[in-house]
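pasting for ref
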Amino acid sequence: MQLAKRLTLHFLKLLLFWVLLFDFQRILFSIHNWDKFQDVTWADWFLTFIYSFRLDIATGGFLSVLPLLFIAVYLIKPSKLTRGVFIGVILIETLIVSFIHAGEINAYPEWNHKLTSRVFTHLSNPDEVFRTADYSMTFWFTVYSILELVFAWRLITILFKKQSDLEIQKWFFKLPIALVSFLVLGVLSFLLARGGWQQIPINIDSAYFSNRHVANDLAVNSTYYFANSYLLYNRSEIDESIPKIEPSKAKSIVDEYYSYPREHNVEIFSNKRPNIVFVILESWAGEAVGCMSETKGATPNFDALSKEGLLFTNMYSTSSTSEIGNSSIFSGNPAIPEISVSLQPEKHRKLRSINQDLQDWGYSSGYIFSGDLKYGNIGGYFMDHGFEDVKDENDFPTGLERGKLNYYDEALFELFIDRLNKAKEPFLQCAFTGSTHSPYDHPKSNRQNWEGVEAAFMNSVIYADHCLNDFIENCKKEKWFNNTIFVFVADHGHASPAAQSPHDNAFYRIPMLIWGNPLKDEFRGARIEKVGSQADIATTLMNQLGGDVTLYKWSKDLLNPNVPEFALHTVIGGYGWVTNKGSMVYSMRTQNVVNSSFTPEEESIETEKGNAFLYQIYQDYKNL
């Protein structure tokens, strides 16, 4: 048992070692880049050392596994050699960690984001690195690497002093105890590395706490961020899969689609500055909504609202995940197969968000989700884009009934009403529902009696539709209601009784409804049949509010009579292309078209158009 205690103690010392080293790195980073912190308060600077703790421990847990193995060997067979190997492993890991951080300190003044996979592009051309890096960068890289190694060595000499040998001298008595102890601590390391037992593993979002991105960058563990970026880099190197097309041809095709006359006189709001409430409907599939499909009976309340609002019937989600859907809605950004831009702050920060335009006009802002915003770094995306008040399940009152994944929609809307009542007008306030996400947790009642295909999902939609009605009825009682526009839109599609396959375009069709008193009478009960996607919401809305729509490059105005009709969405390993003439899915793995409704002649033309769009979107993404 003495051996097990010693091994556990060394494990705790390893965690302490890494946390202290990471905090030392933050101090060096702050000193070198102090001019970046001019808008950061001292309180927020100190808070970075608190909010960083979970990611530091997660990273430390991962980095401690290998040294823990060698300290176990040392405790079984004490010698200068085994102790030297243990110390050597820590120093090698420290060297890697120090190089990552020293590189980040030097790159940050120019890049304004943490060290990422972008460095691999430069390292593939070493000559470029040496020619573009000035002598001061090389000098400071060396200085900071040495400082961190010296600091680490000092910690090692303090924390891991040579101790007396254990009383049991025979190694074969120690081996089973050491093995069991190592396995137990290894499992604990794994739990620390993923952030605990929860369903969604820890992400960089867990360290986000400020609207100042430099404070969030300081709090996020540099080694964790770099490793995460490396995995994304390997996963997102899809150059070989992107359809081949002459660049000039691709640009010509895309430019032609966006050359439509932009001026028009369609104005749907009675005033230019209404409050705006977004309700992001988790997984609401168009084929499950009664007013949009042959599937009747699940959404009577939404169907009733559609008769009083402006319904877009041919909207498509850009992808099949929530983080991509959210960034597409608020930044007018299309999707790329296998890539989530919200997971890459160095890129998504360069995108515009409608929230930033509204802030310039005096709007307050907020976003609330009934689950965990660490998923897909959704919370980080909204905080980076200046949302003033971003809340998730961690901010819900204790004691509320909830499902496995999130709080029920009724609890979400109750809190949302309270936030709306406290918000400063004009406001942009957003709620993201969760009860229609697997495992479809919701309070059961006689209303949920759907049977057959996708019964669990459809019953959750019935519940969500009921909660939506209660929410609207409660909103009608509030003083801000008369000057508020509601935008109801799904984050992505879902399998429904009428559309099962994620390789069918219909799977991605989603509802979008603009509703509220500021909507002019002539648009109430109207339907927009034009083909579009979530990426078009930004320009469509901002044009009505008088914003600068040129900031949303890939977004088009669906209220413009001249707008071309098309939508591009991703599928697993490919993309979908939809126009007013038909639709198809293109597999990048097989480099051919599947599930096409075009004629053979049309298919050839539309494939070239879809390939051109994906090529241009991918080039634009790489240049962010």
